[in-house]
Structure formats: C-alpha cells, structure tokens
Write a structure and sequence with these properties.
Elements (H helix, E strand, L loop, with lengths): L4 E5 L2 H13 L3 E6 L15 E4 L4 H4 L4 E4 L8 H8 L3 E3 L1 H8 L9 E6 L4 H13 L5 E5 L15 E5 L2 H4 L9 E4 L13 H8 L8 E5 L13 E6 L5 E6 L2 E6 L2 E5 L8 H16 L4 H10 L8 E6 L2 E5 L6 H8 L10 E6 L11 H6 L4 E4 L3 H5 L5 E3 L3 H11 L5 E4 L12 H13 L10
Parallel strand pairs: 1-2, 1-4, 2-3, 4-5, 6-8, 6-9, 7-8, 9-10, 10-11, 11-12, 16-20, 17-18, 17-20, 18-19
Antiparallel strand pairs: 12-13, 13-14, 15-16
Helix pairs in contact: 5-8, 5-9, 8-9
C-alpha cells in the first residue's frame, strides 16, 4: 500500500515537529520552505524530500493534506490555489487535536490559552500550579515545546498557549476550558481588519467545553450563547479583585483568598493573570491550596515584571521586556495600590518615535522617583518634573537604592528598545539583575 503523502509548509520548530510526527505515523512527507536556508533543515530525516524557494501551487495541489506552519500566512496565493483545488490545510495544533482523540491519550485534560498580552505568563503560572500537584503535566504550544512533541500516554493535563496564527488552522480541539485573556490591536499586517483578528481569536471558544473570559474586556466574552462560561476581572466576576480594609485581595465567588501584597509578580495586569490562572486551574480540578501556594512564590517570567530580590525591605522588579509604552503602562498601572510604600521607576533607551506623553497618567499614579537613561532620555524627562536623567543603568540603580526605603518597589520598565546600549532586552535585563544582586552598602555618588 502506498503511504499517504503530506506536505509540510515551513520549517522551524513547529514544522520540524510536524515532519517528525508524520514520519512516525507512517506518512510520506515533503517539506516546502520559501527560504534558502530555513532553520532546522539540517535535522531532517533523509526520507524527507525538500523543496526550497517560493511556494508553487502546481506542486502543492498534488497533496491532499498540507500542514502549514504558523509563520506562513494563509493568504499566500499558492496556498489559496491549493485550497481551491481541494487540498485540506491544517497546522500542527490540529494534528495534536486529532491525535489527542486516540485511546492512549484521550484520558488527559486540556487547557487552551490565547490573548494579545499575558498568555505566556498565565500558561507558565498555571503550569507551575499543576506541577505542584500529583498530575503529570505538559506545557507548550506557542511557547517552549511544540504541541506534538508533548504527546505521551502518561500525561494527565496539557496546557497550551495558542497564537491567532495557530488558531487559523485548528478545528478539532475539545479543551476542557479555553480562555481569551484580552484583545488589543496586533498583527494587523496579517489580518483584513481588527474585527477579523478578534474573530480569529474567538475560534478558541468553538473548540472547548467551557470558557473563561475577561469581564474587563468584553471583546473576550464568548459569542456562543450555550457555551458554559466563567469570568475573571476587577469586579462582577467569578474570580475577581476584592477591596477590603483598604487592601486588595484575589477572590473566588466573592470570598477573599489571597492578598495581592503577597504576590512577587507586580502590577494590576499580573493580578489579572493570577485570577485567570486560578479560574483555569479550578476548572480542571486543581486544589486552591496548591494554586495559592504557587502564587506566593511565583516570581514571574524572566524580564516580564520579574521579581529579582528584596534589599533592605525594597523589592526590585525587572521588566526589561517592556520595550514599548503600552508594556510600561501595564506594568505601572495599579502598582502603587499593592504596597504601603512608594514606587520608583527606571526607564529609557530607544523610543522608536513613541510619544512619551502617553506615560503621564501612570506616572501620576506613583509618588516615587523616576530615573531615565539612554538615547531618548531627554524626551522622557520632558514628561514629568521628577524625572532625572543619568548616564546609564548602573547610575540609575545606585540612585534608586539611595532614595528607596523599606516597603518601596523599584521597577525597571524601560518603555524603549535596548539597542542603543545593549544587544537585546534580555542582556539589558540580565545587567539590571546583576546590579541589583550586587547591592550592598550604598554610598552617596555625585552625578
């Protein structure tokens, strides 16, 4: 019997993962990639035929099934012609969904997570909560390990972060619970309109038993009237923020469960991420004891409002991933409400033409000092009279250490790209962490 022929479009992590999965399943696989030297090509099995260069519809129509990597737009003319000719177009997540129905995998529960922002943090946090139990957990998808590489009979729970690109080619997921954390304009170079982008995100709700939506962002509310749903948000939600005695708590069904001042991750957006993780975890049977225990120690993802160290009662936060104004707004919003002390901010770098006046509102929320450095420091300094320009990040850290007191927070959220002084935001964030960990007795320094 001839093996069924399948075309994989696009190499990279998900493409190579799809190739390996299909080979193992007994398919004959051909890989197509428009690039001359695609990543992962050297790792291919010798049984795989490879075609490099622009996609050619006359080749693709010979395959009944095309597995398209997320980075390849479905608007590609060759793919459109192949679809019109009757080819089925799916992605690696759809392969995963179909495999999950096999008896050896079917016992496992599935959580699917998407959103414009925060999905990696929620996926990571929920994964740690699940790992704190006796469950065998597999985490991946759009982050870390490709979904197909996670498949194993012993897994009890899969947690997948999914991008809109992955959702475009997925129809068969049957998640125990799915969420859209939030929606804001993104990837509009790939979609016909903002409405088209929103519609693509909502594909996730067409493939789940229960939905968790953000009550503060009604764009995330399921449009399917019969779909069982839960909500998280700042108020009027199943998992919400509750103010009591001038303090803010994470609550479940109106009952206080966790004071946000005990969170190592900072900012209102991370309170929302914590609520989302609690909602998802509750839906798949994780105990509150396990989830809250993880919340108490979870320090966040590297460079994303990451707790670095407490020095003399001052908490230092690394948000070097905050490379634009929106990210810094999210990091600072509501931060002062979570502590008794002051919030001090360090920022700066390459602004990429941004209007720093948009930071004025979140600067007004904080009562601490603000230090800036880098290529666009003078533009940032014009926004607020408190802002002091310094030579570099080391100077900013030393000054922030001088002015901060026990109970305060110092957050490095640049609102800028790093390339004026660093190779990338990771190197910049690592330098900040080195500076903070080296803090000892701080002496007065003239600038």
């Amino acid at each position: 019997m001839l093996k069924k022929q399948v075309a994989v479009i696009g190499a990279g992590k998900s493409g190579i993962s799809s190739v390996n999965f299909l080979l193992h399943a007994g398919y004959q696989v051909t890989l197509f990639d428009s690039r001359e030297h695609p990543p992962g090509i050297d790792m291919l099995d010798t049984r795989v035929e490879v075609f490099l260069g622009p996609l050619n519809a006359s080749f693709l129509v010979n395959f009944k099934l095309l597995v398209v990597s997320p980075g390849v737009a479905l608007s590609n003319s060759a793919l459109r012609q192949a679809k019109d000719a009757g080819c089925e177009i799916i992605g690696d997540i759809e392969l995963f969904a179909r495999a999950l129905k096999e008896p050896r995998y079917a016992h496992a529960k599935l959580v699917t997570i998407t959103g414009s922002n925060g999905k990696t943090t929620v996926t990571s946090l929920l994964g740690e909560m699940a790992n704190a139990t006796s469950l065998k957990v597999a985490i991946g998808g759009n982050i870390g390990t490709p979904a197909l590489d996670l498949l194993a009979p012993e897994i009890d729970l899969y947690i997948l972060e999914l991008s809109s690109f992955q959702l475009e080619t997925t129809t068969s997921l049957n998640a125990d619970i799915a969420t859209i954390l939030n929606i804001s304009a993104d990837h509009l170079d790939r979609y016909r309109s903002y409405a088209h982008y929103i519609k693509t995100k909502h594909i996730i709700y067409q493939q789940c038993k229960k939905a968790l939506f953000n009550a503060d962002d009604m764009q995330t509310k399921p449009l399917l009237p019969r779909l069982n749903s839960l909500s998280f948000g700042s108020e009027n939600a199943d998992f919400q923020l509750l103010q009591k005695n001038n303090e803010i708590f994470l609550s479940i069904d109106g009952q206080t469960r966790f004071n946000v001042k005990h969170l190592k991750i900072s900012g209102r957006h991370n309170w929302m991420n914590a609520l989302a993780a609690l909602g998802l975890g509750t839906a798949v049977g994780l105990t509150q004891e396990a989830m809250l225990s993880v919340l108490r120690r979870y320090s966040g993802l590297a460079h994303r409002c990451e707790f670095v160290k407490e020095v003399k009662g001052v908490r230092w936060i690394n948000d070097s991933k905050g490379t634009n104004i929106g990210a810094t707004q999210a990091a600072l919003s509501g931060l002062s409400q979570s502590i008794l002390g002051k919030v001090h901010v360090i920022l700066g770098g390459q602004g990429k033409g941004a209007d720093f006046n948009e930071l004025r509102e979140v600067f007004d929320e904080i009562s601490g000092s603000i230090f800036c450095f880098g290529e666009d420091a003078s533009l940032i300094a014009a926004v607020d009279d408190r802002i002091q320009c310094v030579n570099d990040l080391a100077c900013a850290v030393r000054l922030a250490a001088q002015v901060s007191n026990s109970g305060d927070i110092v957050i490095f959220s640049p609102a800028c790209a790093s390339l004026d002084m660093y190779k990338n935001f990771m190197v910049r964030g690592d330098h900040f962490k080195e500076l903070v960990k080296a803090l000892g007795n701080v002496h007065h320094v003239e600038f």
